[in-house]
Request: fold
Amino acid sequence: MNLLTKVVALFAFVLLFASCGGSSETSQNEEKPSSRDEIRLKQYMVQGAKIYSTYCANCHQDDGKGLAALYPPLAGSDYLMENFARAACIIKNGQAKEIVVNGVTYSQLMPGNPITNLEVAEVLTYVANSWGNEGGLMGVKDIDKWIDACVEE
Reply:
């Protein structure tokens, strides 16, 4: 093989490898959260568990199943999972109105929590991804917008 043939063959091999390897990496990255988001999710889960233990577990219990007809479950909660913006507002500001969670009516007052928006993001990420819930990462920027837009219902 002469030098030109070797260079052309090498060039063709590199192009083939780059297009095959490159496109699969791109599609994998589009489907998966970035490693930065994965790390942040893990951090929020750890911090959120601490905040949950301090402010939430007395009523909603360590397993997220709530307390009889007094306090609603967070585990498998349709109410929680259908509207994270509303959940952020409730965590921060509390709630006094009657709600229906998984077909059960709850009317117990929930006080607001004296926590930062970052802590709201952490605890909401924790409850949205615990006990079988799959809600993903709650970013602080979203929480900031949601808290600013909280309305009395």
